Amino acid sequence: MMMSVFLRAAERRKAAEGILADLQLVERWGRFGRPVIVGALAYDLIVDFDIDMEIYCPDLQIDHGFQVLRECAQNSHVTHAQFLNGLKTPDQALYWQIRYRDEENRDWKVDMWSAPEDYPLPRSEHFVEPMKKALTNETRKAILELKESRANDNTLACLSIDLYRAVLEDGVRCADDLRHWLQTHTTGQLTNWKP
Predict the structure, then answer these.
(1) 3-state secondary structure string, the chain?
(2) Which pLDDT does position 34 carry in this prediction?
(3) pLDDT tens-digit map of 123-171
(4) Beta-carbon neighbour count of residue 90 at 10 Å?
(5) Distance between CA 57 and CA 55 in Å, rounded?
(6) Going by C-beta distance under 8 Å and a sequence separation of 6 or more, which residues neighbour residue 4?
């Protein structure tokens, strides 16, 4: 019997939580700011091997992020670490990435943005609770299925927030509907949209 979309998501969530624990990312970032798990892990919609965090810092310093990366790089599962100074870009934050190969030989990407505590732009942390409240079993299933379709079909390429908007705001439930929705809506932009 094939594993259901819900069981696949639950397995990925468990693996992601294990990676966070193994890398001690919440504890390591917690020395320098307030780490928040956001993205698909936060609302239990994991399809891609991807973990997202935001860290809001009272004293934002590049050295702090390099300290976290240096400590994580000692872990034998870490295959890559990256930094991008985005303070003078539209993101106005520092970007950190870790690549982690798990016991199943799957490559995970851990995206982390550190920003000042008074960060003025839309925050993913403000999206988590409205998103969790808006999800039903039907919409969760639709989103997971569409994310799995998107992983294998370039015509469905879009930001996850656009996929969420299509499902929760406009009733999209299948790949053909999403393809049409993407052609008729503005996508790929920083947004304050919440369900």
Answers:
(1) CCCCHHHHHHHHHHHHHHHHHHHCHHHHHHCCCEEEEEHHHHCCCCCCCEEEEEEEECCCCHHHHHHHHHHHHCCCCEEEEEEEEECCCCCCEEEEEEEEECCCCCEEEEEEEEEECCCCCCCCHHHHHHHHHHCCHHHHHHHHHHHHHHHCCHHHCCCHHHHHHHHHHHCCCCHHHHHHHHHHCCCCCCCCCCC
(2) 97
(3) 889 999 999 999 999 999 999 999 999 999 999 999 999 999 999 999 9
(4) 9
(5) 6
(6) none
